[in-house]
């Protein structure tokens, strides 16, 4: 036996395995990144045979939007909105007020306009002030901050905690509401929620049509 | 071309429509009572009234102001403004003064909406106006004094 050749072979195999090991975490990370930016189409869940499991999986996919800071920041558990990807308390300190529009003298509209406003000459971390004609906080009974996806799922099915929406109205709201849609166009310097509002609406629609099952956690 | 009312007079601006209102007020209209502090709606120094409501002029593109009425510290008037002016002078509220035009515009707007504000109302309305000299205690007292003076 030619030991030298065999040894080279082992070394080559090691190198190969080593290269594979070095590559795989990177590609997994890339997949995860792409996964966080996109939504799987509702149709792609057809392969899940059990309707109940398919329903849960659809909601979990939609959960990538629902639990994104762009959405949760204005569904706070207290009267103060959150801000930024780190979901810190809003600065300046502002509070819910009537209709979630802020307190007298310090309403949302004191700073937030009908559109995202780019700012110039500021730090790299501050590129625009967000805005939308309907800018306001979700009512306290619709608070999502600190809840699991399963808890949020139960909550948005409950008319007492979803603004007395029927499931049809809920689908319509998710698919077409303008302020919900802001999440996909949040202005410079802010990460949009994944996918598109149309894809998100289709996930919610498919979830409702499969019985609106909720994740257990 | 943007047309708007500034302190009761019709004005036009034909520069870049993205120019913040604060720049138009200070650099083009030469009304320098309204101050620049942060440029990102964090300090309140640039507060003006837009159609009767307090707004941060540093982040308000002039294009949005088309057809609106803008009131600055130079033009603010009415019984709330008078009461605030008297109360401010009575307690010598300002220290360096830099934040004060913004403070006053917010305080006047508060009294227009809530004639007899509680401490909580004052906190709610004035929390976005920062004072590096920390005149907050005098601001609070002066707002209460102004509210009391309007009652009689
Ligand atoms: S300069 Fe406008 S809020 Fe600071
Ligand atoms: S008086 Fe100096 S910043 Fe307020």
TrEMBL record, chain B:
**InterPro entries under this entry?**
2Fe-2S-bd, 2Fe-2S-bd_dom_sf, 2Fe-2S_ferredoxin-like_sf, 2Fe-2S_ferredoxin-type, 2Fe2S_fd_BS, Beta-grasp_dom_sf, Diverse_Oxidoreductases
The name on file for this protein is (2Fe-2S)-binding protein
Q: Does the keyword Electron transport apply?
A: no
Which stretch is the leader sequence?
A: none
Q: Which UniProt keywords apply?
A: 2Fe-2S, Iron, Iron-sulfur, Metal-binding, Oxidoreductase
> Which SUPFAM superfamilies does the UniProt record give?
2Fe-2S ferredoxin-like, CO dehydrogenase ISP C-domain like
The record's listing under PROSITE patterns reads: 2FE2S_FER_1, 2FE2S_FER_2
Q: Where is the 2Fe-2S ferredoxin-type domain?
A: 1-76
Q: Does the keyword Ion transport apply?
A: no
């Amino acid at each position: 036996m030619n030991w030298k050749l065999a040894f080279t072979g082992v070394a080559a195999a090691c190198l190969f395995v080593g290269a594979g090991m070095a590559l795989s975490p990177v590609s997994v990370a890339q997949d995860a990144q792409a996964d966080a930016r996109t939504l799987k189409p509702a149709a792609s869940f057809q392969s899940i045979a059990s309707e109940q499991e398919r329903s849960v999986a659809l909601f979990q996919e939609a959960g990538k939007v629902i639990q994104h800071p762009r959405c949760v920041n204005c569904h706070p558990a207290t009267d103060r909105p959150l801000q930024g990807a780190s979901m810190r308390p809003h600065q300046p300190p502002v509070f819910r007020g009537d209709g979630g529009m802020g307190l007298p003298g310090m309403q949302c509209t004191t700073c937030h306009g009908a559109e995202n406003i780019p700012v110039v000459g500021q730090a790299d971390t501050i590129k625009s002030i967000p805005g939308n004609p309907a800018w306001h906080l979700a009512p306290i009974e619709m608070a999502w901050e600190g809840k699991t996806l399963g808890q949020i799922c139960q909550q948005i099915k409950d008319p007492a905690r979803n603004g007395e929406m029927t499931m049809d109205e809920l689908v319509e709201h998710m698919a077409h509401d303008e302020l919900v849609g802001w999440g996909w166009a949040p202005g410079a310097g802010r990460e949009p929620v994944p996918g598109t509002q149309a894809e998100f609406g289709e996930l919610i629609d498919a979830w409702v049509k499969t019985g609106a099952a909720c994740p257990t956690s | 071309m943007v047309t708007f009312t500034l302190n009761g007079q019709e004005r036009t601006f034909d520069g870049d429509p993205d120019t913040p209102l604060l720049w138009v007020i200070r650099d083009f209209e030469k009304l320098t009572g309204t101050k620049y502090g942060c440029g990102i709606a964090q300090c309140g120094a640039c507060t003006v009234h837009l159609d009767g409501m307090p707004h941060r002029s540093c982040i308000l593109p002039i294009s949005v102001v088309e057809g609106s009425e803008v009131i600055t510290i130079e033009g603010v008037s009415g019984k709330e403004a008078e009461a605030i002016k008297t109360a401010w002078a009575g307690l010598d509220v300002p220290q360096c003064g830099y934040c004060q035009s913004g403070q006053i515009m917010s305080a006047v707007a508060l009294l227009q909406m809530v004639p007899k504000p509680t401490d909580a109302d004052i906190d709610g309305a004035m929390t976005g106006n920062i004072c590096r000299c920390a005149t907050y205690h005098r601001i609070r007292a002066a707002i209460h004094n102004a509210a009391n003076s309007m009652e009689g």
